[in-house]
Amino acid sequence: MKPQILVGAATSGSGKTTFTMGLLRALKKRGLKVQPFKCGPDYIDTQFHAVAADRDSINLDSWMASRTHIQHIYNLYAEKADVCVTEGVMGLFDGYNRMQGSTAEIAQILQVPVILVVNARSSAYSVAPLLYGYKHFRPSIKIAGVVFNQVSSAAHFGYLKDACKDAGLECLGYLPQTEGLRMPSRHLGLTLTAKRQMDEVIERTSLLVEQYVDIDKLLSLCTRIFPCQYTLPYTSEVGVESMHRPSAKLRIAVARDAAFNFTYRENLDRLSELGKITYFSPVYGSDLPEADLVYLPGGYPELFARQLHRRKRMMEQLREYAEAGGKLLAECGGMMFLSRSLTVRQGGTAYEMAGIFPIDCTMVDAKLHLGYRQTVYQGLSLKGHEFHYSSVVCPDVIPSVARLRNAKGNEVNTPLYRYRNVIAGYTHWYWGETDILKLWE
């Protein structure tokens, strides 16, 4: 038995991230080992979690991974923790197809209770029917209690408590309307300054959680049997025994700094099973390590375009590695670093990049490209997520080697490029239960 909490919300923008950050820090300050998780494919909130709890956060995504894989990694990472806190995604029941891929589905898979965060800024007792609906819409989703956000006064909270009582839900407290609790921009990069700002906001939020939320009652209501029970015997998509194991341990180089940090913990764990990972920094001028496989994850290269442009030695090493047939996987920001140039603003400099691909990337007229992606390449079924504002100026200058589709199976125009053994595209792939080495067979 241990407390297992899933923080859901009535709608996006309710304040679940703010509350989750404050709760993680408040529990950590009690001397508890807190294991954070994140529903969905987000690779930014997980970095917030790591700052709050001083522990890597793990993605739980029911579209990119199988149910038994989700249960397996939840049990694996939670085993040594005193308490588990999972942050939901969007509204509680919002998925890519009705409830599929939603926070509620993760609650169902793991059989953990939900703490519902409700933004009460423009409402009072009228939240009662909303709460009643959330409680009864899917009775299999156990809502353990409610925390209100943006509460203006004790009198305001009184109306909200009455609403909880009449809806048949436990009221666990609230966060008051407070200036200065806004999380730093999600587009700042993981710089020391951004982490310091984030830490300050998290600390202030934790003090409010400690003051206005009944943490002891919350923990009691959310204590459940651990580990969660598998719906089926655990096997990975390809079967653990059939995963490719090279005869010799691979040397694996992974870019990790303020510009390249959009990674899934499970991906790195799978790579570590194949060999020894050495991290390097394109922004701060590390040499490319000796490697049999190089991984350039996504991030914020546009914020560091000038610094990256000056790393001539690094770019030359990447070109030499590519020409020699080295295996390299680049995702989103990593692909941008391998492009011919990167333009950050209208009329601004087109910063020269590594030039492995004859494409030019730009942030001009930036538009959000967002959604799940899937494809089959080299006989390997891949699933991932696309999230970026940049674009390729002439994306068809080189052909895509695969057709990508969204979660509903509709074709999208997201390319997947290949030059020799360099594979790159905008999609952040998840290979927690996939044999990623098959890409190069």
UniProtKB/TrEMBL annotation:
<comment type="similarity">
    <text>Belongs to the CobB/CbiA family.</text>
</comment>
<comment type="pathway">
    <text>Cofactor biosynthesis; adenosylcobalamin biosynthesis; cob(II)yrinate a,c-diamide from sirohydrochlorin (anaerobic route): step 10/10.</text>
</comment>
<dbReference type="Pfam" id="PF01656">
    <property type="entry name" value="CbiA"/>
</dbReference>
<keyword id="KW-0169">Cobalamin biosynthesis</keyword>
<dbReference type="InterPro" id="IPR029062">
    <property type="entry name" value="Class_I_gatase-like"/>
</dbReference>
<dbReference type="GO" id="GO:0009236">
    <property type="term" value="P:cobalamin biosynthetic process"/>
</dbReference>
<dbReference type="InterPro" id="IPR027417">
    <property type="entry name" value="P-loop_NTPase"/>
</dbReference>
<keyword id="KW-0315">Glutamine amidotransferase</keyword>
<dbReference type="GO" id="GO:0005524">
    <property type="term" value="F:ATP binding"/>
</dbReference>
<keyword id="KW-0436">Ligase</keyword>
<feature type="active site" description="Nucleophile">
    <location>
        <position position="332"/>
    </location>
</feature>
<dbReference type="GO" id="GO:0042242">
    <property type="term" value="F:cobyrinic acid a,c-diamide synthase activity"/>
</dbReference>
<protein>
    <recommendedName>
        <fullName>Cobyrinate a,c-diamide synthase</fullName>
        <ecNumber>6.3.5.11</ecNumber>
    </recommendedName>
</protein>
<keyword id="KW-0460">Magnesium</keyword>
<dbReference type="InterPro" id="IPR011698">
    <property type="entry name" value="GATase_3"/>
</dbReference>
<keyword id="KW-0547">Nucleotide-binding</keyword>
<dbReference type="InterPro" id="IPR002586">
    <property type="entry name" value="CobQ/CobB/MinD/ParA_Nub-bd_dom"/>
</dbReference>
<dbReference type="InterPro" id="IPR004484">
    <property type="entry name" value="CbiA/CobB_synth"/>
</dbReference>
<comment type="function">
    <text>Catalyzes the ATP-dependent amidation of the two carboxylate groups at positions a and c of cobyrinate, using either L-glutamine or ammonia as the nitrogen source.</text>
</comment>
<feature type="site" description="Increases nucleophilicity of active site Cys">
    <location>
        <position position="428"/>
    </location>
</feature>
<keyword id="KW-0067">ATP-binding</keyword>
<feature type="domain" description="CobQ/CobB/MinD/ParA nucleotide binding">
    <location>
        <begin position="6"/>
        <end position="188"/>
    </location>
</feature>
<feature type="domain" description="CobB/CobQ-like glutamine amidotransferase">
    <location>
        <begin position="251"/>
        <end position="433"/>
    </location>
</feature>
<dbReference type="Pfam" id="PF07685">
    <property type="entry name" value="GATase_3"/>
</dbReference>
